[in-house]
Structure formats: structure tokens, C-alpha cells
Design goal:
The protein has 341 residues and is an alpha/beta fold. Helices cover 52% and strands 16% of the residues.
């Protein structure tokens, strides 16, 4: 979609989380800055460096100089965090009326004008799903599909299709998320489940860089999301407990019936073996879910903040401030007339 001839009368924050993209970050930011300059009346570009171990931070810092790009806000994290937490760092520090979040490896920035058109028309949340994904291993695809099925069962939405990471949010949606105790975790699903006016769009564009995701980290993040964003797992615990009690009661009736009707059964062996195997299976399932809840509660109490900003840089030129400092030229006569009035 071609950018509108007249810039949209909004202040847009554009959030990008990157890691080890030193060679690609400068041309990417140049393209973003050029596009936003003609797309909206005012903007800022918020970059979150996710603890890169190449020279990304040095290059980003150089871009904030007097000869660099305007309207940059850079936040450098001291340790690597997951993609959602890194994106939330940018959202939490964004100042715009609307905030766009993009994964520069997978998302197409040229689709942003269409998303903003929906946002300005009244949508508080606009999602865009790229139908072309980076190739992943068979194990990752299987675990990913299982997670989305469980999440849809627990929360009623398919996270990958109905709440993708490429999104435009209004400021009131961000303020709503800030009221929750774990905004960095709930940020991923709350815009889709909070009752806001939303629009889901889709497009097809080849990912710029093939990006393999780590299965272990994804499983850990998925489990944390499942146990921290819904009460359904705890409801599962109570259901399993009730089921175990009913089965135990029925099995007790069965044992009593066998005792009265059969005479050639080894005393207590069959009943004891079946009871132990059945009850230990149910206990194991209950302990699994309870264990995940305990791990989540312990992490909330003992791990401290999910992220820490080690360094922060701002562009030497901020067009928003320049506009605020513009004064209309007036003649001495006009000034005296205003003073007399």
C-alpha cells in the first residue's frame, strides 16, 4: 500500500527489538525513518537492543549523533530476554498516540500504512499476520502447534493467528496493560482478549532473514504464558482431583464386589496393584500442573525484574521538540499591538 499524500495527524511510536543485527540495523532504520517521515505528522523510533554481543550498540549510538537519524530512542538491555519482554520495554517507554511493534526479521514494514489506516479509523488494536514463516524444525513445529491448541482451549484465542507479534496499539490499550501485575507477560494476549475494538489483517511477504528459534526457550516461555495468563490450569487441577476421588470411590465399590463374587482371586493383589497404578497416574498429573504453578510463583517472587536497561541514548535531533520551539514571525508593530491589547 502506498503511503498517503497527506501525513496522518498522529504521533506514532515505532518499536523494534533487535539482537546481533549490526550489519542490517542501519539500512533498516533509514528505511523506517524515511517511510515514517511522510506517513505521520510526528514519530519516534524506539529500538530495544536485546543484549547484543556484536557491535550493534556502537552502531546504534553512532546513529544518534548530530549527523545521524532523528527521533531515535535506544534502550540497551544488560541480559537477553524473550521477544515479548523486549518488545514490552519499548512499549513501556513509548510516548506516541499509537505504537507499532515489528519484528524486523519476519515482518514487512511496507504493510504499516494499511494497519495505521485501520487504527486511525477507530480500531484500538490492529494485528497483521505474515502468512510466510521462517522454516523451523519438525520438533519446534509440533510443540508450537500443541501450545496454540492448548492456549486456544484455555483462553479461547489462537495466539499465533489472532494475536501475532506485528501490531499497532492505541495508547489506552497500553495503559490498560500497565494496570496488570505482569505486563511483560500479559502484553502478548491482552490486546486480543481485553474487549477493545480490533482488526486482524494478513499479508504475504518472505522473511528477510531465516530465523531458527530455540525449542527449549520457546517451551519455557510457553509454559509461563499458560500458567500466568489464565485460571484454566488450576481448574484442571481441581477437575483431576475430583476425578481421582470419583474413580477411587468407584474402584472401592468394584473391590467390594469382587470380594463378594469371586473366590479364586489372590487376596488383595489385583485390587492393590490396580489401585496403586491408577492413583499414582492421577497424582502425577496433579503434581505436574501444581509444579508449574509453583515454579511460576517462585519466579515472580525471587527472580526480580525481567529486564534492566543498562544504557539509554537519544537522537541529537528530535523533530517533535523542534516543532514545539517554532514561533510565528511578527513585526515590532504587531508585538506592540498585542502588548497593548
Amino acid at each position: 500500500m502506498i503511503a498517503p499524500s497527506t501525513p496522518l495527524p498522529i504521533f506514532l511510536s515505532f518499536v523494534i527489538a533487535t539482537r546481533n543485527q549490526a550489519e542490517k540495523i542501519q539500512p533498516l532504520l533509514a528505511d523506517v525513518s524515511q517511510m515514517l517521515g511522510g506517513l505521520v505528522s510526528d514519530h519516534e523510533i524506539v529500538i530495544v537492543d536485546n543484549a547484543s554481543d556484536d557491535d550493534s550498540l556502537l552502531r546504534l549510538k553512532a546513529l544518534t549523533g548530530i549527523d545521524g537519524l532523528p527521533n531515535l530512542q535506544i534502550y540497551a538491555l544488560t541480559k537477553e530476554v524473550d521477544a515479548d519482554t523486549a518488545a514490552w520495554v519499548g512499549l513501556e517507554n513509548a510516548l506516541g498516540d499509537f505504537v507499532a511493534v515489528i519484528d524486523p526479521l519476519n515482518d514487512d514494514i511496507s504493510f504499516l500504512p494499511e494497519m495505521l489506516d485501520k487504527a486511525v479509523s477507530g480500531a484500538d488494536v490492529v494485528f497483521a499476520n505474515n502468512e510466510q514463516k521462517s522454516a523451523q524444525s519438525l520438533a519446534y513445529r509440533g510443540a508450537y502447534s500443541m501450545f496454540n491448541l492448548l492456549y486456544k482451549w484455555f483462553n479461547g484465542i489462537h495466539l499465533a493467528k489472532e494475536a501475532p507479534q506485528y501490531r499497532v496499539l492505541s495508547k489506552r490499550v497500553i495503559n490498560f496493560i500497565l494496570q496488570h501485575p505482569q505486563p511483560a507477560t500479559t502484553y502478548r494476549h491482552l490486546p486480543a482478549t481485553g474487549g477493545f475494538a480490533k482488526v486482524n489483517l494478513s499479508y504475504s511477504a518472505s522473511p528477510k532473514i531465516p530465523h531458527k528459534k530455540r525449542l527449549g526457550d520457546s517451551i519455557d516461555r510457553g509454559m509461563r504464558m499458560l500458567v500466568s495468563t489464565t485460571r484454566a490450569p488450576m481448574r484442571l487441577v481441581t477437575t483431576l482431583s475430583l476425578f481421582g476421588a470419583v474413580v477411587n470411590l468407584v474402584y472401592s465399590v468394584y473391590v467390594v464386589a469382587i470380594a463378594f463374587l469371586k473366590t479364586d482371586v489372590a487376596p488383595g493383589w489385583v485390587s492393590l496393584s490396580l489401585q496403586q497404578s491408577g492413583m499414582f497416574c492421577l497424582i502425577s498429573l496433579v503434581l505436574l500442573v501444581l509444579g508449574e504453578y509453583i515454579l511460576n510463583m517462585v519466579s515472580l517472587q525471587n527472580e526480580g525484574p525481567l529486564y534492566h536497561v543498562g544504557q539509554e541514548f537519544t537522537s541529537a535531533r528530535m523533530t517533535r521538540r523542534e516543532k514545539l520551539n517554532i514561533e510565528e514571525a511578527t513585526s515590532p508593530q504587531q508585538k506592540s499591538e498585542r502588548a497593548a491589547g
